[in-house]
Amino acid sequence: MIQNKILSFCFLIFFQWMFLNAQNLTSIEQLLQSSYMRGASFSLIIKDLQTGENVYAYDIDRQLSPASVLKIVATSTALDILGEDYRFPTSLQYDGSIKDGILDGNLYIKGSGDPSLGSSHFAPNEKLFLNNWITALQKKGITQINGSIISDESIFDTEGASVKWLREDMGNYYAPGCYGLSVFDNLYKLSFRTGAVGTSPTILGTFPDVSFIQFKNYLKTVLATSDSAYIIGAPLESVRYLYGTLPANREQYVIKGDIPDPALFLAQYLTSQLQKKGIQVKGLPSCYRLEMEHNRWTNRERQTIITTYSPPLREIVRICNHVSHNLYADALLKTVGLRYKPNKNEVISSFGRGIAFIKSYWKEKGLDVFSLKMNDGSGLAPTNKISAAFMGDLLVYMANQSKASDAFISSLPEAGVEGSVRTFLKETPLQGRAFLKSGGITGVRCYAGYIRKEQKNYAVAVLSNNYSCSMRQMTKDLEKLLVQLLQ
Description:
This protein is an alpha/beta fold. The chain has helices at 2-32, 71-82, 128-139, 262-276, 288-293, 313-323, 326-337, 350-364, 388-400, 405-411, 471-486; strands at 41-48, 54-58, 89-94, 97-99, 102-104, 107-110, 144-145, 149-152, 187-193, 202-207, 214-217, 220-222, 230-232, 239-243, 245-247, 253-258, 280-281, 286-287, 303-309, 434-441, 444-453, 456-465. The protein folds into 2 domains: 27-84 and 314-486, 3-Layer(aba) Sandwich (Beta-lactamase), CATH 3.40.710.10; 89-309, no CATH class. It contains 11 helices and 22 strands. The strands form 6 sheets. A 5-stranded antiparallel sheet has the order 2-1-22-21-20.
């Protein structure tokens, strides 16, 4: 009798599980049968963090564009290798000698790839580094520099933007180039005054001053409340083309663009700030790239005046994942790439070194990296590819094995509350229980991270590509699907 009751109970549980699983599979099928999913690709994995087993899985080996979900790869690798307390150093150094307040030599800004120097995300301290540098020079008694201010950005190469990025991205604020020296998020603000509908807006100026940029203005004003403006231009080039529209009849309207050569700009900026403080600089500002191009670079012995440090890596990663900071992600990729040892006669870029190291690192950890096809750390390149299977395994590792587990998980914004997912899952049963990184470019909508359900935690990755509806509609449908699967 007891055995029959136990058997009946087991059958009941089994059929309930089969019924619920069938319902959830139907939820996926319903999404895929939508007219705008014709020709689209979709992949989903939900893994139990405790057991590592797949709870739900659909086409998990499909290689799809992840957009900014790819930042999870760069940020998790950096945390796992460098540790959450790692800080980027940036140093002021000089060659030559100092006598009677005169530096008979050059002043160098030695970069280590720090993407957060002067970043607005660490306000109000974005100019603290500059004040500290000037104070250190004043303590040295320096009142004149006979040489130049030279940025040393040589830790990375000159390929600031991936060659796989789209033209429409390069030059815009969200796609700044990543170099061995960065400052102020590698961004400037461009101000306009706009007039009647159909007229060209007037450029008022930039902040900070990037007057070395030549703007070709093809903007027009329209009756609207927001802009559809693009700033287009190549890395390291001082010409920028302005396309699109701005709202009419505004006394001031501001858009943002990327500083084309942050290392040279920083040398120029420091030179002007020193002049304002009464420290005369005789030579013209320069950088490693220009010095090498003109065969002027020397390896004279240098002395360090001051070294400033970035915030801890955990804070940089948190901002990177919360606001989807492309510069931060690419800098982390290139930084871990410094550990890559090129083969004999191998010519490889800073992006390439980072990608090669990341793939070898996770392969050694036992992850299948076949589907991991990276061209940057930010996810801007449409040619990036990843599978839900790889992402699920990476999330499980970071939660269960990484020493930086807490720092990584807390770097993911709380869905429905903050960051790039502040409206996703809002006012649903999963609000407050999901910590996700979002990703979205044209035809791509993805999410990955962690969701709590009762006493269990799950790793989740959902990737959708080439749908024909709006991103807003796709977001709504993915939200509905996750609620149905894990409410």
